[in-house]
């Protein structure tokens, strides 16, 4: 074999594969970052300002491409992996047009739900187009599989690229972590993807899941923790408990709610939250440390309901989408159930959002009153239900039974993303202190657009604050002792940096209102201690984690033992419960007033369905077939007439016009 042939062989088996893979990985990294940031310029800035992080992402992609070089069909798999990365980048861009958070591995747990919900976001033409694209992609893969010929197996290039990419990743990761350029956990996925890069963040979400088994986890260690809890004394709240027994407890989780007086460099024509400000002055209150920023409501929700900390779970993980899809979890509702409480959720949004209708029965709730069971809903300009409806729904829930109630209320009106167009009718005006203020130019075209978004947000806050005032006014007249805990779930999705606000960006505030006397205090705490603190103030200590927070929160090994408890309860052998699961999934009902058919009469060409509990999400099912249903009122539905003598008719409540949340008892038409 002559020199030219050796050179050609070296080029084909070593040089071209190595450099071709490196160049492709670089281009893919740049293209994906451009898609993620919606800007070629921003991708160049990422490369220029954060080269270490850019090449960290490059090394992740390079590792995946290098694997294809080991196969005899390396050209096919190389192309396939490259296309997958491009598709992920495109899907991420499209997904963020509909929601705040970028895609992560968590989304692939929800493929079925995503397919079901597609008709809610796209018309028939769009759905057909997607179907054709998917079929086209599958056909193309089949054609390429046949057309692209096998190659001789090579060894030097694959090992060179793989080892180099792994070594590069290790060096860059170590350097970025050591210099605090890269954080281990992400409090906000949207910001993390922009700060650290798509490939790294997405890959990280694949491998980090659940709670890592503590090194000292054992039956003996858990017995020690239990003994410490039982022998401990109250430390979380040491004042005098309220002089009431088992009051109604209402938690109100306020979407993206915070006092904008903490926002620097902007002036507001009036305080948008006067009622909440008054509560902070007159009642127990404080800062609340939350696990997320700008999005991720359900993780704050999870901490408050369970008393568990999100810091021990995987990066970007939502327990609602992982462990709670199949397991029950110790919680405030389960613990209050033991002393006769009836636990309900009131939420003016879709029941299926974040799988809440599947998760809440595993958290011990007896009833879920979602938007599909509410009437008189009004919506803001970006489609979120207004919070004013919640006052009536909470009062309805309180009077629906004779038990004491635990009512977990979730607002939604001030949910982002906020429009950037000017609304001349806004009551509250926002004025930047300078025309040269910095703003998130990767998301907004100008300071004026950013100011308009803030202005829209504070006017939504105003209306949510009016709901707070209306609820407390009504409950002041309520005869049963009742306490209401108002708190923000996270700061608004306005891409606020720490320098932009005068409070920690992981902090919101809470205030505890009651129609009975409670000692006024100012106390700051994390979200996973909030319920234990409230119960402590009421002289209640039901629940293992509740007792643990109340009695052990200042202990030296508090955080280590909290992780032990969480692991044991969710992933371990449940030593603290004698190796048994004490919490069975509840047979949760939907709606405070479920649909009921009382009579059916014929009127012209229609059948009138009389009853109660009907809403615009009600669908009549006659003889096993859904009928075109006209909503007339909460007591009347109308369907086209057809012969149904001797047939059974019932009413379904539908989420997103498809998913059945519940149905009425069958009515025999005669």
Model description:
The structure is a single chain. 43% of the residues are buried. The chain has 19 helices and 20 strands. The chain is of the alpha/beta class and 670 residues long. The strands form four sheets. It has a nine-stranded mixed sheet, with helices on both faces. Strands 14, 15, 18, 19 and 20 form a five-stranded antiparallel sheet that branches. The chain has a four-stranded antiparallel sheet with strand order 12-13-17-16, with no helix packed on it. The mean pLDDT is 90. α1 (3-37) crosses α3 and α3 crosses α9 (198-207). The chain has helices at 3-37, 40-49, 51-68, 74-95, 111-117, 124-147, 156-178, 189-196, 198-207, 219-231, 274-282, 297-306, 332-337, 356-359, 389-398, 447-476, 527-537, 544-552, 558-570, and strands at 248-254, 266-268, 285-289, 342-347, 367-369, 405-410, 430-432, 482-488, 507-514, 525-526, 589-590, 596-603, 606-612, 618-622, 625-626, 630-633, 636-640, 648-655, 659-663, 667-668. The protein folds into three domains: 3-207, no CATH class; 219-417 and 427-587, 3-Layer(aba) Sandwich (Alkaline Phosphatase, subunit A), CATH 3.40.720.10; 594-668, Immunoglobulins (Immunoglobulin-like, Sandwich), CATH 2.60.40.10. β12 and β13 form a beta hairpin. The chain is globular, with a radius of gyration of 28 Å.
